[in-house]
Amino acid sequence: MQSIQLGPFTFATSLFAFMVAALLGLFLAAWLDRRKQTRAESVLWRAIILGVVIGRLGFLIQQWNFYQSEPLSWLDLRDGGLMIPAAVTAGWFYVLWRVLRDKAVLPAAAGGLAVGVAAFSLIMVVTGKGQAEPTQPLPEIDLIPMQAQFRAPESLDQYQGKVTVVNLWASWCPPCRREMPAFKQVQSSRSDVNIVFANQGEELDVIQKYLNEENLDLGNMWRDPQMKLGQAVRSRGLPTTLFLDEQGRLVDVRAGELSAATLNDKINKLK
Fold first, then answer.
1. Is residue 131 part of a domain?
2. pLDDT at 3
3. Residue 116's CB: how many other CB atoms inside 10 A?
4. Per residue in 13-26, pLDDT tens?
5. What is the dihedral of CA 199, 183, 60, 26, to 10 degrees?
6. Which stretches are annotated as coiled coil (predicted)?
7. Domain tally, the chain
8. Dihedral sign (CA 247, 146, 177, 74)
9. 235 lies in which domain range?
10. How confident is the model over 252-266, as pLDDT tens digits?
11. pLDDT for 136-150, tens place per residue?
């Protein structure tokens, strides 16, 4: 399962697992604090905040070209742009430092961390995200080109030979609309990858009206009227982005909004 739907909100499975794990760990730490008169909950809170700040700063430095012109985007964590190793290292070292200074917080802090790690691992295993999956080809799915309404449907096989990114989107989806400029920026700046758009379930005139209103001139625009691509990867929400290797095999799926920086980072990791 690549994403989890809660009412109108869609979360990437890993992000949902992290939020649940953090809440459970903090709850247990707070309960143990009350029994032992310690302050482990505040230690874990600060470790999480420090980890997010350090991870974000590391990612900003790594992808500075995409952030330097928009300072406000530095604070927008919705794109998931974090340097995870730096974030985890900073959080663990902060907890270790606080425990060495005040050993009384060790039981509650250790209990909170243990519950958090166990909850995260359990959710990832239950949803299938904790299992390493081999690359696999997508099923044969016909897509209808936007450029010529009456041409015969084609498939994604034509893009083999380069890393290919397929964005599943719809004009009624606010996050899809927000991330379109980012995909346009990467499409215009990287000729070494294919950036492909597959509209999910909308009529041609609706799509064309949106593209004209937003002045979006995008290549590789397709329609997926029956939303078969989303069904193939078991995605329950939009936007969803598929990452294919040079042989056309599915190697990663991202549920949720991407910025130009996070999109560029994921492409670099694939290449």
1. no
2. 62
3. 23
4. 777 888 899 999 99
5. 0
6. none
7. 2
8. positive
9. 136-270
10. 888 888 999 999 999
11. 778 888 899 886 555
Q: Same domain, yes or no, for 97 and 148?
A: no
Average pLDDT over residues 189-211: 95
- Which residue among 103, 126, 149 closes a domain? 126
